[in-house]
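We now fix the convention by which a protein and its fold are recorded. Here is one such record, which you should read through line by line:

>
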Amino acid sequence: MKKYHWLSVFAALLIVTAASSSLKAAEAKYLSARFCRACHSSADNDRYHRWLQTKHAKAYEALQGAEKKNPVCLHCHTTGNGEPISDRIKRKDLRGVQCEACHGAGSLYKSNKVMKNRAKAIEMGLIIPTRITCLKCHR
């Protein structure tokens, strides 16, 4: 039996883990902010209603005429443009820069059970935004 250097085994494990997370993210569908609202609009943590007052929530409204159909504009002014969406929503439900624009499609991490475990939520596709996330639109 060959002996493997521990670093090689660790690197292989990282590659498999990353591939697994990428596959999960590829299976995920966008849901819209209304699904996030259920847990993120409590009296002590009302992120949903605070978001409604932001420019991000109103980003689609900033588009004029043909911009509302231009995929280049829609990429930053809507959520999940061109990506798979839940059968429970319509594309228009994703107007504006919603939660999933920064946190990734939520169908696999949306449950309370998953969201209570940060590592599991990340494994299931939750993105913790960084400056790079913002720079995808804010260039």
Residues 29-135 form a domain with the Flavocytochrome C3; Chain A, domain 2 fold (CATH 1.10.1130.10). The radius of gyration is 18 Å. The helical segments are 6-27, 33-37, 47-52, 71-77, 99-103, 112-115, 118-123, 131-135.
